[in-house]
C-alpha cells in the first residue's frame, strides 16, 4: 500500500511502531522494519549517547531497512544530553526521528541538515499546527485512547483525526487504539496516511519484554486502564495494578495539594523491573485501551501481514459493497 507516509519514510506498509520506554530496543525496531513497517528505537531508554549509538548499530546489524529513533522531551529531573543523542542518530545514519512531548523546534535544523525526517507526536490539533509551522515533516496524531501521555484535552480519534485532516497540510498517521486491519482502514478513511501502534507491538514475539507483560496485555480488557497524574497535568494512561491503586488513592486523598514527590515511588525508575523482570505490581506502566482488542502474540511479520491483508479485504470486499 502506497501513502504519503510510505513515500516519505521509504517503507512498504504505512505502519509505525511508536517509541516505548524499555520496550523499543533494537530487536523490536528491527523486526518491525524487516516486516515492512517503521521500527523505532526509544532514544532515552539508552543511558547515554554512546549507548544509543551501540543500539542503533545493533539494529543496523539486524536490518538494512529504514529505522527511526524516538526522542521524548518531557519534564525530567536532569536534562538528558539531547545534542549528544542527536549526534548518535545522525552518525548512525538514521533517517527518521519521532519527537514527542515538548516543542522540538530547537533541534530541527540539526536533524534536517542531516536529511532526517521528523514526525512529531501531538495530542491536539493546535500542537499539530504548531509542529507544522516550525517545519516538522509529518505528525503522529495521538488520540485520547492512547497508552502513555494522552495530554489534557481528552479528544478521541473519531474527532481528532478528521479535525487534523481539515487543518493540516503535512501528512499524519493515526496513533492510539490501533490494532488491526479495521483500525488501518478507519484511519485512512478519517484522513490519516497510516497508523502508529504502541501497545499492540508490545504483545509480539520479538518485543524484548518479560512474558508477564505480554500476558497482562492479553488478560486486560478495555476496562482495565486508569489515568494517573491528572492533577499534575502530566496525565498517563496505565494498566491498573497495586501501584496504580496506591497512586489513585493518594491523588484522591491529597487533591490539588499533591506534588510529584507524593507518587514518585510508584512511577519513577520502575520500568526496568516491570519490563525486564516482569514484576507487574511494582509500579505504573503505560498501556492503551486497545488491550481489549489484543488476543495473541504474533511475530511482527505475522501481525503486519495480517493487518495489511485484513485492510485490503475490507476495502475490496466490505467497503466496495457499499460504494454507489
Ligand atoms: C510501555 C509504553 C511506553 C511508552 N513510552 C513512550 C516514550 O518513551 N515516548 C513516547 O513518545 N511515547 C511512548 N509511548 C507511547 C507510544 O509511542 C504510542 O504513542 C502509544 O502507545 C499509542 O497508543 P496505543 O498503545 O493505543 O497504540 C509508550 C507506550 C507504551 C505502551
Overview of the molecule:
The chain has helices spanning 4-9, 26-34, 49-62, 82-91, 108-113, 125-134, 157-167, 181-189, 199-202, 211-219, 242-254, 264-267, 271-276, 300-322; strands spanning 15-17, 39-42, 67-73, 96-101, 117-122, 138-142, 172-175, 195-197, 225-228, 236-239. It is an alpha/beta fold. It has two domains: 4-207 and 297-322, Aldolase class I (TIM Barrel, Alpha-Beta Barrel); 221-286, no CATH class. An eight-stranded parallel beta sheet has the order 1-8-7-6-5-4-3-2. The protein has a two-stranded antiparallel ribbon with strand order 9-10. Strand 9 (225-228) and strand 10 (236-239) form a beta hairpin. The model has no long low-confidence stretch (mean pLDDT 97). The site of flavin mononucleotide (FMN) has 30 residues, from strand 3, strand 8 and helix 9. Flavin mononucleotide binds next to strand 3, strand 8 and helix 9.
